[in-house]
Amino acid sequence: MSWTGEMVRLFVGDDWAEDHHDVELMDAAGRVLAKRRLPEGVAGMARLHELVGQHLGEDADDAEVVVGMETDRGPWVAALVAAGYTVYGVNPLQASRYRERHGVSGAKSDRGDAHMLTDMVRTDSRQLRAVAGDSPDAEAVKVVARTRKTLIWERNRQVQRLRHQLRGVLPRRAGWPSMTWTRPMCWSCWARHRTRRRPRS
Fold first, then answer.
1. Residues 8 and 2: beta-carbon distance below 8 Å
2. pLDDT tens track for 107-133
3. Helix or strand run (H / E) with residue 69
4. Comparing C-alpha atoms, which of 16, 38, 22, 48 is closest to residue 148?
5. What is the pLDDT of residues 141-196, one digit of tens each?
6. Integer CA distances (angstroms), 159 to 24, 40, 70, 162, 174, in order
7. In this structure, are residues 125 and 88 in contact, taking their beta carbons and an 8 Å threshold?
8. Which CA distances in Å does 71 have to 16, 58, 162, 169?
9. What is the pLDDT of residue 117?
10. Model confidence band, residue 2 (pLDDT cutoffs 50, 70, 90)
């Protein structure tokens, strides 16, 4: 929930190809939050969960993530539905008409289509049909997929908190105030600091 009490909604456009996905994240106001090219498969799905978790932050557990793709089938779509995201399979003809209605030209590009799909599910989701869930036999898979997604989001939250603490307690050496604290750097620094403070037996 946001500070106003309204549910936080994050919109994702996913333009897929055989070996990669161009994705864009947008908030409810239409502000573009991120753009990425992700690999197909488990690694790409993990990076998508991580990206979504980074932008939802503490609101992740109560948020709705809405995804638009020009397909309604396949392992990637099944994984999104299993993770609890609302997925709209956009008909290519609908996408083409939306592109013509809102675009300056009819030229196609992967990133341009990702943006178009993001904005389409944000503004026109009432005209789209959400992808239905899988058979009852897949419920166990959904539990595992959602647990994995939740763990990735929680890891991101912990890293963000650790990064904030490190900036406050470590000495301000030359160049440190402007450093970008990556996840490996945070854990490595925390481990060294913890080892130094461990009492001798």
1. yes
2. 678 888 999 999 999 999 988 989 876
3. strand 64-69
4. 48
5. 777 787 888 888 888 888 888 877 777 766 555 455 445 556 666 666 656 655 55
6. 23, 25, 34, 5, 23
7. yes
8. 9, 31, 39, 49
9. 95
10. very low
| 79 and 102 co-located in one domain | yes
Provide the whole-model pTM: 0.67
Residue 3 domain-assigned (yes or no): no
Q: Is residue 43, in this structure, part of any structural domain at all?
A: yes
Q: 126 and 174 in one domain?
A: no
Spatial CA neighbour of 86 closest among 103, 70, 106, 65: 65
- Do 126 and 81 lie in one domain? The reply is yes
Task: Quote the longest CA-to-CA distance of the chain.
Answer: 72
Domain containing 129 equals 9-141
26: its two tokens: 């947008």
Residue 83 lies in a domain: yes
For residue 127, the domain's CATH number is: 3.30.420.140
Residue 146 located in a structural domain: no
Rounded to whole angstroms, the Cα distance separating 197 from 19 reads: 47
Contact (CB, 8 A) for 181 and 167 = yes
Q: Which amino acid is at 164?
A: H
Contacts with 180 (C-beta within 8 Å, 6 or more apart), sequence order: none
Assess whether 137 and 160 both reside in one domain: no
